[in-house]
Design a protein that fits this description.
about 180 residues; 3-stranded antiparallel beta sheet; two-stranded antiparallel ribbon; globular
């Protein structure tokens, strides 16, 4: 998820590491704050793989600043990861939102719709956070008001996402971009 976010934000524009960290935190920080001890090793791995380049420019007040730029290889890798997301990228909400934030970079409506269809199929499967054996329980079946709340909120969120997915897929199917 972190590498996808790095590639996605750098696809948009070259950034200083500090600004990149702020962008990633704005996207995912409410769930997973981005520590420098996590971000900078990921940047170095991507740089070593030839997916991004680092240039140095003079600092405004003090030390020189590093600007990170996505290479052509990095752009290709981002589009590959977007077109072929792992199942976890589809099913984990936080990973899904990160993927969704950059899906426009595929630039192919059919490829975008394919990814959205995978998420749609996942959401259409009967599921719950709570089960009676193998049978998913609905909110109405629970006496615990807190667990019922979890399922009520999840149902509303899922319905909204299902509506958006169906509308967006239909729009992409009609697009000749």
């Amino acid at each position: 998820m972190l590498e996808l976010a790095i590639l996605g934000f750098l696809y948009d524009a070259p950034l200083h590491g500090y600004v990149l960290r702020k962008h990633i935190a704005a996207l995912t920080g409410h769930v997973r704050p981005v520590a420098e001890s996590t971000l900078y090793p990921a940047i170095k791995r991507l740089e070593k793989a030839g997916l991004l380049a680092r240039t140095t420019e003079p600092g405004a007040v003090a030390a020189p600043r590093h600007v990170l730029t996505l290479t052509e290889k990095g752009k290709h890798e981002l589009r590959r990861r977007l077109a072929e997301p792992s199942q976890r990228d589809i099913t984990d909400e936080n990973r899904w939102f990160t993927l969704l934030a950059f899906l426009r970079h595929l630039e192919d409506p059919a490829a975008e719709a394919t990814v959205l269809r995978r998420r749609l199929a996942f959401l259409e499967e009967p599921a719950s956070f709570f089960y009676d054996g193998d049978r998913p329980l609905s909110a109405e079946e629970l006496d615990d008001p807190f667990r019922r709340g979890i399922l009520t909120i999840a149902r509303a969120t899922s319905r909204a996402e299902l509506t958006w997915l169906r509308e967006t897929i239909a729009s992409l199917d009609d697009t000749d971009r």
